[in-house]
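Tokens in:
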């Protein structure tokens, strides 16, 4: 008998890696860009020819604002790609559990020596996994989310937030960050709802203050940490402006999405593993 172990934890890796790396890249790149001389861009390492490109009529301030918007749009696109890949992985994981037939595989490979059987089973499972992933990749975002939610052992905590994040991504990707008719509801508004880590300091008198880096905290104070939802509203025709400090929040939201999916994808056991015996 051969045991195949499907580990749900791998499903969250694309979104979690995107969250970690995008946050790191933005934290390194954004401050450097603000102090850079945009009129004298250096050559790339090992570049044999320096490319000096200019757009007529642009001021240094306009160049900086445009570069900042592009950097933010690139970060959001990469985060959305990671979330999408994790959703595709979740759909593939669900279908593989539901559709993988040990009896069919046994009939196909027959009886053989153990090493040959293991290789044949690995090949058969790999082929089916590839076909199921291609099916997930062909789905539109609403269909994919609906499929994953239906296959979870508990309701997803952040379904509306996932949808609003996809709207933000589409707005940047297809409309240059300008809110279009495709993005808005019946009130001509696009609402972005994303989970973020809310940290408050409660002093002895009960007064509550948002925690800030470097803030002194007395021993008599209490620090309260929770995942809350921040709602931001944009109107039809408005250019979406994402504050640089929000990129960390958006990256954290993608991490939360991935963790929520993985937690509810696997069996109740903490290992998140599903075993199939052939």
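Residues out:
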């Amino acid at each position: 008998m051969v045991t195949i172990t499907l580990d749900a934890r791998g499903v969250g890796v694309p979104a979690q890696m995107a969250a970690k790396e995008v946050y790191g890249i933005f934290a390194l790149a954004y401050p450097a860009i603000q102090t850079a001389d945009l009129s004298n861009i250096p050559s790339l390492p090992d570049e044999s020819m320096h490319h000096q490109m200019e757009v007529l009529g642009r001021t240094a301030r306009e160049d900086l604002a445009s570069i900042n918007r592009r950097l933010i749009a690139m970060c959001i696109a990469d985060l959305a790609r990671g979330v999408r890949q994790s959703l595709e992985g979740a759909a593939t994981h669900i279908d593989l559990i539901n559709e993988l037939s040990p009896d069919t595989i046994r009939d196909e490979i027959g009886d053989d020596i153990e090493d040959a059987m293991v290789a044949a089973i690995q090949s058969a499972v790999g082929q089916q996994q590839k076909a199921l992933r291609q099916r997930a990749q062909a789905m539109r975002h609403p269909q994919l989310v609906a499929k994953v939610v239906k296959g979870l052992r508990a309701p997803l905590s952040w379904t509306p937030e996932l949808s609003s994040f996809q709207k933000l991504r589409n707005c940047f990707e297809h409309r240059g960050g300008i809110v279009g008719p495709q993005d808005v509801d019946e009130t001509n508004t696009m609402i972005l709802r994303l989970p973020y880590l809310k940290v408050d300091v409660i002093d002895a008198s009960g007064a509550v203050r948002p925690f800030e880096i470097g803030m002194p905290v007395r021993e008599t104070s209490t620090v309260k940490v929770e995942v809350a939802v921040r709602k931001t509203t944009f109107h039809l025709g408005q250019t979406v402006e994402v504050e640089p400090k929000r990129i960390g929040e958006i990256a954290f939201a993608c991490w939360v999405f991935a963790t929520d999916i993985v937690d509810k994808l696997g069996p109740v056991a903490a290992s998140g593993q599903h075993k199939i015996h052939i």
